Amino acid sequence: MKTLKEISCGCTVKVKKLVGDGPVKRRIMDMGITKGVEVFVRKAAPLGDPIEVTVRGYELSLRKEDAQMIQVE
Fold first, then answer.
1. SS3 assignment, position 70
2. pLDDT tens over the chain, length 73 residues
3. Number of continuous H segments (helices) and E segments (strands) in the chain
4. Cα–Cα separations (whole angstroms), residue 11 to 6, 19, 25, 39
5. In sequence order, which ranges of 1-73 are alpha helices (DSSP H)?
6. What angle do CA 40, 35, 25 make, to 5 degrees?
7. Which DSSP symbol is given to 48?
């Protein structure tokens, strides 16, 4: 299973599952990243942190640790 962290720039993927729990998972869901939603990876910083994505028309920045919790297909 791939995570959002492993997806290269310019790709659109669909969220399969969010792993983890607690406040971090809640923060990801509050951003609109839920199962079945499409995420477009716009760019990643040179060291991979943060990762910039577009979700439901909004541009967001995710930390590498958060992107690791988002399984995609």
1. strand
2. 899 999 999 999 999 999 988 898 999 999 999 999 999 999 988 877 899 999 999 999 999 999 999 999 9
3. 2, 6
4. 11, 21, 23, 8
5. 22-30, 64-68
6. 95
7. S
